Amino acid sequence: MSVITEQDIIDSVAGACQYISYYHPTDFVEGMVEAYEKEQSESAKNAIGQILINSKMCAMGHRPLCQDTGSINIFVKVGLNAKLDISRELEDILNDGVAKGYTDPDNTLRFSVVSDPAGERKNTKNNTPAVIHMSVDNSDKIDITVAAKGGGSENKSKFAVLNPSDSIYDWVMDNVRQMGAGWCPPGILGIGIGGNPEKSMLLAKESLMDHVDIHELKARGPQNALEELRLKLYEDINKVGIGAQGLGGVTTVLDVKILDYPCHAASLPVAMIPNCAATRHIHFELDGNGAAKFEKPDLDIWPDLEIPMDTVKKVNIEDLTKENLSQFKSGDTLLLSGKILTARDAAHKKIVEYKNAGKPLPNGVELKDRFIYYVGPVDPVRDEKVGPAGPTTSTRMDKFTKDMMEIGIMGMIGKAERKQPTIDLIKEYKSTYLIATGGAAYLISQSIKDAKIVAFEELGMEAIYEFEVKDMPVTVAVDTEGVSIHTTGPAKWRTI
User: Fold this and answer.
1) What is the SS3 assignment for 13?
2) Angle ∠(394,316,372) on CA atoms, nearest 5
3) Measuring CA to CA, which residue among 233, 208, 95, 229 is closest to residue 157?
């Protein structure tokens, strides 16, 4: 019998981490192409187009689809008849594979995992440990699925124990309406029903690893209650009108997946986990014939698209003042050129601490009249000025917005909606909020012509950078009058 070695496992997991960082699953690309072709909302169609352009660029350039290269989830099924040549815990071997994949110098990936989550929250510097789920069967192989899940979509996960008489459909629809766009739609919605609390969450996560096949189900018709629920949710979620990036449109989900498990008669555990526009997972088996080999997808599955320029306004940031921001209205597409600063959660916290202490920021950094981009970029390789640098979810910065407005920032760039108090502040201070497309990180990075850390270098990817950008694509999400595209867009396309 062939032997499965430690090195086979390490190399396979490392190769999988690299592969999924720059290749979307083929079925997902095909679903996105279909969504692009049928989209009627100009803003949403442009966003899907950017995601597809980014996806093809990443496939060709072998760089990450999203700056949030995710935390790793591994599903492992070990055959009881498999012959293993390992001398350590399998979990340690799998984590060595993750570390090797994330530290590959040819395609460095962002380290997002922190230890001591309720305390120091210190970055582990190699994106380990992975979240590993193990089971066994009677085969002579090891079956492995590796998935990378970004924080934006994971943070939108929902769980509840319903009464047996409650409607799962109503619970899901209510939560989808509240979920907003921070999970970067269009994507896939995974639902787990039954078991107990932890089992239903696991089912929801596992369901996301399945192929996009909703149209096959629609063509043949549902054959049981779960399929009926799946199809009804798919159709009705898309009627809510959230659309790509929350801009309003006809496609919010490409598919809805459901797995179930028997449960206690007195309970109905239900979990919901979305997978974003950077859906990333791959399945492989090890049978003793060496490390897994992953086939390159055919580049012909991606259409040749370009960002439409007929309605785009080119903007020189250096020419902007608070007084002339009012020329830009919610829904406008802009190409920004000039210098912007970056700041995420940790940097915002430090900025407020410095403000409250009456201290100037390090190195003479001034925020007044500057645009702040919510981003934690991937480290550059070769001749890059910066690695993939797409936006992070903006609502996490809402708690800091009043302080930032008092400092005098010009505006903010991020992704997804803002809460109403933040919108009110934008209107009060005659500021603006712009969004870049989540899931288009490599495309966005091509517009960054120079990048340097200017403060808080110890924060790693959360340090304050100064980016010099040329024609960076953004959409006006909240204008100086407080009009939000994330309110007006979905309202226009809502049919349910």
Assistant:
1) helix
2) 25
3) 208
Round to whole Å and give the CA distance between 103 and 91. Answer: 18
312 pLDDT band, cuts 50/70/90, is confident
CA-based nearest residue to 269, from 176, 205, 191, 157:
191
| Token pair in block for residue 226 | 């779960």
For the chain, domains (ranges, CATH) are 151-277 (3.30.1330), 312-493 (3.20.130.10)
Length of the chain equals: 496
Q: Are 251 and 188 in contact (CB under 8 A)?
A: no
Contact yes or no for 317/340 (Cβ under 8 A): yes
- The one-letter code for the residue type at 166 is D
CB 104 within 8 A of CB 126: no
Q: Token digits for 458?
A: 């110890």
CB 198 within 8 A of CB 205: no
Q: Alpha-carbon distance 409 to 482, whole Å?
A: 16
For range 42-70, the mean pLDDT: 96
Q: What is the mean pLDDT of residues 249-274?
A: 98
Confidence at 309, pLDDT banded by 50, 70, 90 = confident
Residue 74, burial from CB neighbour count under 10 angstroms (0-12, 13-18, 19+): buried
| Residue 374: per-residue pLDDT | 98
Gap between the Cα atoms of 114 and 56, Å rounded: 31
Copy the structure tokens of residue 482: 């407080």
Closest to 10 (Cα-Cα) out of 135, 150, 206, 142: 142
Structure tokens, 313: 């306004």
pLDDT confidence tier of residue 376, bands split at 50, 70 and 90? very high
pTM of the model: 0.94
Check if the beta carbon of residue 312 is closer than 8 Å to that of residue 335: yes
pLDDT digits (tens, 9 = 90+) for 160-214: 999 999 999 999 999 999 999 999 999 999 999 999 999 999 999 999 999 999 9
- Terminal CA-CA length for the chain: 58
User: Tokens in use for 104?
Assistant: 């590959």
